[in-house]
């Protein structure tokens, strides 16, 4: 067997053992309550609805594969109709394991119609040493739609004395209102991650970070956030009707404490699974 044929076969075996998953969820307001109108599940992603009697709908995303590693591909698409209300989260923290080559890829697409309200509140993403994650989040809000979105990333597990010494984390967010771009954010850390996080201009030794995006954002809620006493570092800015809070903690536990406090100040309850 030639070297080229052997390499091709190895690549085919590797690709066949990669995980893939997709969720496409549509929800609509029906008789004053939000109901799912379409649910598509493929691969290792599932979505469950533990609270179907309330006015708002709750969706819990489950990765049956137990994590992601290099070459895995996941996609989540959520569309809310006019007046629909949904809180979407995950059953557990998403774990990104070491890659021997390609990136793990996650894409998220969120569309909210007029009068709709979406709270996108997954639990933390934990990156292990050697992990490589590329993530893209695209959101489109109609006029009158609202969004509360929180994403947290933890680089290693301090409680297990594990550090993310090397790897890749690339994150791209785009928020549009009626198709017009109103917020864009790109973040990338690669190479010697732990060393870079130790720099005072990056995280001053913290290993846990979160961003909270709110649209629209009222001044009263922002004042309550600014008045909080944080365990870690935090800052919040507002412009053009949106607000963004950045949080940095020494570990995942301190970050979660501050993140829950921020969401409470914004009037947003966290999913029950966060508290278990």
Outline:
It contains four helices and 17 strands. The protein has 276 residues and is mainly beta. The protein has one domain (66-275).
Largest β-sheet summary: 10 strands, mixed
**Total helical segments:** 4
Low-confidence stretches: none
General shape: globular
Structural class: mainly beta
Radius of gyration: 19 Å
CA distance, first residue to last residue:
54 Å
Helix content: 10-25%
Q: How many beta-strand runs?
A: 17
Q: SSE order, as H and E? A: HEEEEEEEEEEEEEEHEHEEH
Oligomer: single chain
Mean pLDDT: 92
What is the count of structural domains? 1
Strand content: over 45%
Question: What does this protein structure show overall?
Answer:
With about 280 residues, the protein is mainly beta. It has one domain (about 65-275). Helix content is about 15%, strand content about 50%. The chain contains four helices and 17 strands. It has helices spanning about 5-15, 195, 220-225, 250-265, and strands spanning about 20-30, 35-45, 45-50, 55-65, 75-80, 85-90, 95, 105-110, 115-120, 125, 130-140, 145-155, 165-175, 180-190, 210-215, 235-240, 240-250. The radius of gyration is 19 Å and the shape is globular. The protein starts with a helix and ends in an 11-residue tail after the last helix. The mean pLDDT is about 90.
